[in-house]
Amino acid sequence: MLHRYNRDVALEVKLSHTAALILQAIQAGLVYGFSVMETTGLPSGTVYPALRRLERDGLIRSHWEAQSIADADLRPARKYYKITRSGKATLESSQKRYPLLSKLIPSPEEEKA
């Protein structure tokens, strides 16, 4: 997913189109795995491993909701994701590489404009 070139040169992070799409979805407010799957149309076998890699690489972070909230809604607990500063910078770079990305899943700021 992430490609790092020349360790001696400043770290350059490039996301695959799929990873960029998932990061864009999280930035747009789709903050748990199933909502990312519904919006992007990507299968769970793509989304969940990508979320783990994005978290491992410091582009997103996650936390589990309280079990009592899930129990009240009669569903399993959700793992919520949030984009990090590093993730935002990487996403901005990816949006330049993939200009249609923000048109597929607009961020809340773009929807207000």
Shape estimate: globular
CATH architecture label: Orthogonal Bundle
Low-confidence stretches: 5-11
Number of domains: 1
Largest sheet: 2 strands, antiparallel
Would you state the CATH class? Mainly Alpha
Which structural class do you get from the secondary structure elements? mainly alpha
State the CATH topology.
Arc Repressor Mutant, subunit A
Averaged pLDDT, please?
Answer: 85
Question: What radius of gyration results from the CA coordinates?
Answer: 15 Å
Number of helices: 7
The helicity comes to: 40-55%
Which short descriptors sum up this protein?
single chain; 53% helix; 7 helices; 113 residues; globular; 2 strands; mainly alpha; Arc Repressor Mutant, subunit A; two-stranded antiparallel sheet
Could you characterize the architecture of this molecule?
- By secondary structure, this protein is mainly α.
- The chain has one domain: Winged helix-like DNA-binding domain superfamily/Winged helix DNA-binding domain (Arc Repressor Mutant, subunit A), CATH 1.10.10.10.
- It is built from seven helices and two strands.
- It is globular and about 40 Å long.
